[in-house]
Amino acid sequence: MRWKKVMKMGVFKKTMGLVLLGLSMGLSGFGQVDQVKVAEFARSFSDRNEMSLEEVTVILNNARYQESIIRKMEKPAEGTMTWGRYRKIFMTEDRISAGVEFWKENKAVINDVSSKTGVAPEIIVGIIGVETFYGQRQGNYRVLDALYTLAFGFPKRSSFFTAELEKFLLLVKEENLNMYEIKGSYAGAMGFAQFMPSSYQAYAKSYDEGGSRNLMQADDAIASVANYLKEHRWKEGELVALPIKNMVNPTKLTPGVKPNNSLRFYSDNGYMPSGNLSPATMAALIELEQEDGMEYWFGFNNFYVITRYNHSELYAMAVFQLAEAIRADYEAVKQ
Questions:
Q1: Which of 66, 68, 83, 125 is the most buried if burial means most Cβ atoms within 10 Å?
Q2: For residue range 31-52, what is the model confidence (pLDDT) as tens digits?
Q3: Residue 131: active-site member
Q4: What structural domains does the chain harbor?
Q5: Catalytic pick from 54, 55, 131, 324?
Q6: For residue 213, what is the DSSP state?
């Protein structure tokens, strides 16, 4: 159902619209949502945007509270994982080989986008591979339901998700998308690249630059991932991360993801860099917990940029290592 059809559905008499609003407040979520906030949102959104109260009511009346979303928000799986466990999820032969196939199938777009943005093609593929297994696992929740549930049924993050719900309603109108069919994560992220509505509005790109930005399509997702990283200051041709293989009486340092110290600083504290990098190169100390101990890496600017996509160092390292594995196999196939 396109936006114009939704508009037609909303052309009811004012009294009928108010009745629907009452039904929405009374039935959706069976009391699990903050019904006052639902009504306030409908009025506020209608006042500030070109949509009648009746039309907003129709949309909210079609949203459904999902208790399972709240449970997942309360206990995100990633928060309890070691790097060893996390790595095993993404560094699989299936995901690597599927990444090679995705690159081959979208070679022209990936290489074109990479050349224009400076973002390494394998990193673009790696992010899409970690996010959605190259578009095969975009999520099982309607984005409308996810954002409705979290905006009005999850007080801890209500302000954030209310803003995302508003952006989503504007976005589907702007891009001529079907709000009732788009599925995504339990947090409301959508498409191959799993953008939240605010990121969609800010960073999504149409590959052909002439149509709508549809992240449920591979070409637009590829262009959008690269644009996101470029806008967050990806540096073409620079390193992402290097393992620390040699430590000499290392000083206990605070790990992080932002490259605030030079390699000279780290070597003075016992963390010895390998290769011919300049001692002035800025890096972060990354600590990753394995089942049998800690693993140490230097993370550079581009590693930090990946964490702007997802703030977890586990995520960034999974993207990097998956990308490296895909690139190795892709280049082997070309030969």
A1: 125
A2: 588 889 999 999 999 999 989 9
A3: yes
A4: 3-71+140-203 (1.10.8.350)
A5: 131
A6: -
